[in-house]
Amino acid sequence: MYGYGYGYGYGYDLPYLAIAIISMILGFATQGYINSTYRKWSQVPTSLSGTGADVARRMLDANGASEVGITQVEGRLTDHYDPRDNRLHLSSDNYGRGTVASVAVACHEAGHAVQNATGYGMMRLRTALVPVVNFASQAWGLVFVAGLFLNMLQLMQLAVAFFAVSVLFHLVTLPVEIDASRRAVEYLGTVSAVDQTGAKKVLTAAALTYVAAALTSVMQLMYYAGRTRSRD
């Protein structure tokens, strides 16, 4: 982000600096928590038969999403569901290992696929927002800086509107992620109490990263909107 102290000349902008520090602390704290929780439950074997991919396959089949594919991708915690190819893309550990953590993450991604298969409204809204957000997140910074240097309030207001789209995406993402975790925990509860307990802890830790991202984006939006109003 851009920390120009307009209205006061160039230099240190204490409100922006405070937001940056809070954002950094939230990021480190939530990332550390998810890493430690995931690491702990990665050492606990699942009480179910098979790997994360196997359990996710059974969850998909049990919830009317048998047409969804499952593939393996490189990286750590790179797991995601892509509605464009209708596949779960699971990281190597979660695809091939049979731990509580791998099952929790794989079933969470299966939850997204079930959302798509059942037409879950917030999932459809988030998917529809993706191309708009991709444009807005790339354009807003350039437009904002142009407005600063050209001293054009309209450009700065347009930039804030673009940024607001990104904030909306973060807010829409929260219920989508929480619902996917709920579906995963609910499914595991029907087959394994042990895996359900571990899944709750792993997925709660993961949800906090989305909460932190949403909170940070809201604080930034309030900051930029306030600074723009001060130019009015």
Structural write-up:
The chain is mainly alpha-helical and 232 residues long. The chain has one domain (14-229). The chain has 7 helices and 3 strands; from the N terminus they run ααβββααααα. β2 (80-82) and β3 (87-91) form a beta hairpin. α1 runs antiparallel to α7 (193-229), α4 packs across α7 and α6 runs antiparallel to α7. It is elongated. Residues 1-11 have low confidence and may be disordered.
Derived from helix and strand composition plus strand pairing, the structural class reads mainly alpha
Shape: elongated
Overall tally of domains: 1
The Rg value, from CA coordinates, equals: 21 Å
| Number of DSSP helical runs | 7
> In percent, how helical is the residue content?
over 70%
- Please provide the ordered H/E string of secondary-structure elements: HHEEEHHHHH
In short:
The chain has 232 residues and is mostly helical. Helix content is 72%, strand content 6%. Residues 1-11 have low confidence and may be disordered.
Key traits:
single chain; 232 residues; mainly alpha; three-stranded mixed sheet; 7 helices; 3 strands; 72% helix; disordered N terminus
What is the topology?
Layout: H1 14-41, H2 52-62, E1 69-73, E2 80-82, E3 87-91, H3 92-96, H4 100-118, H5 121-150, H6 153-189, H7 193-229
Parallel strand pairs: 1-3
Antiparallel strand pairs: 2-3
Helix pairs in contact: 1-7, 2-4, 4-6, 4-7, 5-6, 6-7
